[in-house]
Every structure is written in C-alpha cells, then in structure tokens.
Amino acid sequence: MKQFGLFFRKEMLEMGRSYRWLWVPLVFLMLGVMQPIVTRFMPEILKAAGNMPKGMTIMMEMPSGAEVLAQTLGQYNAIGILILVLSLMTMISGERQSGVSQMIFSKPVSFVSYAAAKWMSMISLITASFGLGYAGAWYYTVQMIGPVDTAAAVKAALFYLLWMWFAGSLTLLFSSLMNPAAGIAFVSLGAALLLSLAYGMLPRYMAWSPGALPQISAKVLLQGSGGTGTMGALLITILFMIIFFVGAVYMTQRKRARF
Amino acid sequence: MTQPLLQVKGLTKRFKDRTVVRDVAFSIAEGSCAALLGPNGAGKTTTISMLAGLLQPTSGSIQLLDQSKPVTDRRMFIGYLPQMPVFYPWMTGREFLRYAAELAGLAGRDAVLKTDEWLENVGLQHAASRRIGGYSGGMKQRLGLAQALIHRPKLLILDEPVSALDPAGRKDVLNLLQRIRLETTVLFSTHVLHDAEEICDEILMIREGEIALQGKLDQIRREYSEPVIRIEVGGDPVSLKWMASISSKAFVRQAEITGNRARLTVTDVEKASFELMADAVSHQVAFRKFESGQSTLEDLFLKVVQA
Amino acid sequence: MNTDIPWDLIAPLIVIWLILAVVGLISLSRTESTRGPKWLWVVIIVCGNILGSVLYFVVGRKDVS
User: Fold this and answer.
1) What are the chain C neighbours of B136 within 8 Å (beta carbons)?
2) Which UniProt keywords apply (chain C) (predicted)?
C-alpha cells in the first residue's frame, strides 16, 4: 500500500513534468467545444463556402442539444481515443525499454502496486480530461443550441467514461505485453475500433460487448435509456478491465527488463 | 567472516535454443569481494541479472543467507547497479535517490537523511537539484551506486561498473568501491582483469557461460604461476634466425614466438637464463630485452579465455 | 462579416490553442533532444494549430515518454 502511494506520486509527477496533465485535458476540452460551435455556425460556414446554387435557401433544421452532445461523443470516439492511446502507450513499456525498470525491479517492490499505480493514474488522467471536455461541450451546447436533460447527460457521460477507461486498460495491457510504441498504439487502437465497429454491424450478437458502450451512451442522451444490453455490457466491461489488469501485472513481472 | 552470503547452484539460462549460462555454481563469503571475470559475451550480464532477480533462471538455485538462513525475497538484501544505469531524465538526482530509498523500504524522514548522506558520499551534492537528463556518464554511475547502496544491502552487485567510463570517472568509481568493500560484500562483473585485481580478493572466471576457474586471487596467483622468460631481440637476420631456433631447447616447455619477440615457459628460470644468454652470446645475438619471472594473472586470463 | 459571432464563446478556443503552443515552445526550449531538428518543431508548433502542438507532445521529445 505504501509502495502504491510512492508509485502513484511518481506517475503524477511524470505526467506533470511531461505536460501530459496540461495538453491531454486541453485537447479534450477543445474537442468538446468544437462540435457545438461548428453545428451552430454550419449554415454560415456553408454560405461562406459559396457552393450553394444561387437562390437555394438553406433548409437546415438546428439539431437538439441532446443530439449535439451525442455527436460530441462521436468525436471522442475517433480522436479522443487516439489521443488517449498516444499519451498512455509507453507507460509500462517505456521503463522496460529505457532500462530504468532494471533498477526499480531489483528493489523489493510489489508488481501489483506498480501496475495498480499505473492504472490509477491512467484512470485519473482520463477522468479529468474527459470530464473537462464533456463539461465544456455541455456548457457550449446549452449556450448555443439548447437545453439538455441533466440526468441523461450525466448518465451518458458515465457510460462513455467507462468506455474510455476500458480503452485505457487495453492500452496498458498491450504496453505490458510488447515494446515498440507504434505497435502498442496500433494494436490498442485497432482493438478498440474493431470492438465498436463489430457492435455497429452485429448489434444483436455484440450487445454485451464493451464496444456497445459508446452507442449506449448516445442512446441514453437521445432516448433516455441505454436499451436491453446495458447491464450486460457494463458488467462485461468491468470484468475485462479486471482481466486486463491481472494480465498486465503478470506480464510486467515476467518481462521485468529487456534482454 | 567466512560465512557464505550467496550460494549459487546449477544456475542455467537458456534463451530459445541457446544456452547462455550453463550449470554455474559458486558461493560468496560474507565480507569478500568477488569479480566475475570474462570476455564480452561470456554470460556475465545474464548471470548478474539472474542474481539481481531480474531474470528467471531456466534451472538452478540462488540463495542469499541472512544469519545462515535463506531469505525469501533476496532483493531486500541486494543493491544492484546495471551496466548502463538509466534513470528518469525528468527527475533530479535528489528526487530519484529518495524515490529509490523509499522503494527499498526506508521511511520518510530516514529516506531524506540517507538521500543527503549518499549524495555527499558519491560527490553529487552540488548536482542534486539538477535534472538527471543533464548528467554525465560518470555522474550517472555514481548516482547508480548511491541508489544501490542507500538501503545498506548485504550484497552489492555491479555489472561492468567502470567499463564505459573515462579515466577520471573510472578512478572515482574505483575509489568509491575501495571504500564500500570495507563494509559490504561486493560482486562485480568486468572484462578487465586489472579492475578485478585492484579491488577484489576472489575471482570467478567465466567463459562461454561456464565457470572456467574460481578461487582466491592470491591462491590462484600462486598455483598457476609458471616460470617465464620474455626476450626481445634486434631485427637483424642473425638474431631472428636464433630466435626461431630456441623453441627446441630442452628447458623450454612452451614457446610463443612472434617476429623478434618470444615468451618462453621454462622448467627452471635460472638455468634457462644462463643457457639462453650463453647461447646468444656465442651466436652474436643482439638482445633488446631479457626478462625472467613468473607468469602473471593476465597470462592466465588470456589462456583461460582463449582455450 | 457576420456580426453575431459570439466572440466571448470562441475566445476560449483561441486561448487553449495559445496555451498549448506557448507551453510547447517552452518545453522545446528546455528539452535536451528532439526527434528531428528543433527549428522544424518550432514551425510545426506555430503553424500546425492544435495538431502541431499535440504532435510535438506525443512524438517530439526523446527524454520524456
């Protein structure tokens, strides 16, 4: 427990000194704020682009607040996950690759504490970044588009947050499994993408898949409820996160250093 | 003082189908200083990594004894310095040392005190607040020594501690080791015999993953030293012709002759000296150098390595 | 130009971009080694909008990863 605190403090310090605590939340905030702004000014943008034939009036219905917020989540699913994977990919592999791990693991340290601290800091970074971005998106949506049901917005955010935690867990697992940063990013991103694509194509069979979470989150916003698979997807995701964690502990212990 | 601290039996490491360390066995007595000596690629780093608990042996046992009882987690009693110590470049020297101290189990206040003490011991007190990213190789090595020793380990394990350093850095680290070895049992690997002789009293020569020779340094010196004569003559044809003929003398057990230089292992130095000189005079050979004595550890090391 | 652009809502975006660029440049001036020449990263951060700064933070530096 004492070692967990030590490791966690070190991770926080590193994330601060490498400016990750600054740029990841800011990029998320940017992503969140963009969607409502772009939606609000879409008619003007189209007009300025001048591709419309003269005389054609732009008939565009302004979407509802809930719709814009759901679109924002769509943004996070593409670029948000990419940013997360890129900022987390070397968390375990980097220390093994550089060689610091040799000095760390020759001390009487617990591998569980080590991995748990990585996990906890991953969760912290994701929660803060997504929280900030989502809050920004929400505020801008209410200001520029229209009101959103508070309970639905919070519930949707929590489902989506779980999806991001899942993606982060996946990245850390691959970071414990392999060394090349590009490989980790590719595989983690690919797996997350595949899961959410698979749900899009086979919603019936993948109803409990973690890949259903983004859709569930959107449904909560638009329809007020996530549908029948919600509970299953929730439990399966948490179960997988636990499995990933155990796997990462095991792999970190097995591949203590690079030889 | 002769209690064993570390006992290694049948230590073997295979990577895929290549056996890098084969059936290595030795023990290190408390208070001694042992050098794991061998050419590059002999399996030194692999052996050391297994001892430090970074690499799982394929088979064999490693036991560290505390009050004659084997311990469960030997990392508690070991200080380890890897070949090329790497740190977090974004940490300062003081931060890293304190981090290492706390990881090794020192509590808050104790960790702070020990950190300052060791920064001074290794002469880094003035660079303590600078980021490690800007440290030189020698400074990193000294910081590495400090982090290995901060929890007062019973055994200090070093992997090629001076090989990559410039002469000044090398001297610093060797001096530090001289001091440390008075209080701590030390095991270090090196491919330079001279470094081993300078601080150690025991050597383990390793070749192609196997122990080729081990024992106390002075004992080995006594046991394996042979009478040797080294000759260097002028480059004229007469001298060279004479050189080519001397290996057939009765007292020469072994001769290595390269051009105008010869190294002869002989049965009796004095007799050989007289005969060689007399012979040389009668043949009008121009000596440049004539040296008689005992073979050195260097000779033995080369012999073991090249065998 | 459309006059009803609410600058008070768009200003924060510009501020975010500025912070990222300035912090990126500060970090660049302090860092020991970068992947590729430093001047190139200055260009990327200044002209590359948010993406430039992000690119720098992700792959630009060698010593912190």
Assistant:
1) none
2) Cell membrane, Membrane, Transmembrane, Transmembrane helix
Contact A259 B90 (CB under 8 A): no
H/E element, B37: strand B33-37
Q: Kindly tell me if the per-residue pLDDT of C1 is higher than 50.
A: no
Residues with Cβ within 8 Å of B151's Cβ and at least 6 positions away in sequence, in order, are: A107, B79, B101, B104, B105, B106, B114
Domain count, chain C: 1
Taking only the tens place, the pLDDT of each residue in B91-109 is: 999 999 999 999 999 988 9
- pLDDT for the residue numbered A55: 58
Tell me which of C31, C32, C63 to substitute to probe the interface with B (most B C-beta atoms closer than 10 Å). Answer: C63
Domain architecture of chain B: domains with CATH: 4-222 (3.40.50.300), 226-306 (3.30.70)
Q: Quick check: A19 and C54 CB within 8 A?
A: no
pTM, two decimal places: 0.87
Mean pLDDT, each 10-residue run in order, chain A (259 residues):
91 94 94 88 73 59 86 89 93 92 94 96 97 94 90 95 97 95 95 92 86 92 86 95 97 85
Burial class (CB in 10 A: 0-12, 13-18, 19+), B24: buried
Please identify every stretch of chain B with a pLDDT value under 70, giving residue numbers as ranges.
1, 307
Those chains having 3 or more beta-carbon pairs within 8 angstroms of chain C are A, B
Q: For tokens 């090398």, what's the residue?
A: B170
